[in-house]
Q: What sequence folds into this?
């Protein structure tokens, strides 16, 4: 048996995870503009340098220094976002009792009052025309507004 398999160098062996050895782990990641550990690499790679990482392999007793570089750059524009709702989707909207004018406009656009839920049912297009898409029940914005108003 070798000294390594007997555990003579305790603390340097990797622990087993489900029958496999644990991989080396990243202890620190430095930005290219960090004041320590990147000066020589910054001189060598210049503006192409993005990050420097240090991988520690306890089993082999080694530290690996890796760099992330920009090798190509070209113009890019993101694809247009897909609409989350179609104009005909039915949504529920909160309209306050004191907003009589808004309620009348919602009725004119086909809105239906649901007294059990205390909500108005409208199409997404009607809610957009009224400018009350931020009041659609069930969205994060509406939940935040409800939490503030309580």
A:
């Amino acid at each position: 048996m070798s000294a390594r398999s007997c555990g003579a160098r305790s603390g340097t062996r990797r622990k087993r995870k489900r029958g496999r050895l644990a991989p080396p782990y990243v202890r620190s990641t430095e930005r290219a503009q960090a004041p320590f550990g990147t000066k020589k690499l910054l001189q060598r790679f210049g503006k192409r340098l993005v990050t420097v990482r240090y991988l520690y392999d306890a089993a082999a007793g080694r530290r690996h220094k890796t760099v992330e570089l920009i090798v190509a750059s070209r113009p890019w524009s993101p694809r247009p976002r897909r609409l989350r709702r179609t104009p005909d989707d039915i949504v529920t909207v909160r309209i306050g009792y004191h907003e009589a004018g808004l309620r009348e406009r919602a009725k004119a656009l086909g809105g239906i009052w649901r007294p059990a839920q205390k909500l108005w049912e409208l199409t997404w297009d009607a809610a957009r025309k009224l400018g009350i898409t931020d009041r659609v029940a069930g969205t994060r914005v509406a939940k935040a507004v409800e939490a503030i108003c309580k």
Summary: The beta strands are 16-17, 20-21, 25-31, 49-57, 62-69, 90-93, 112-114, 119-123.
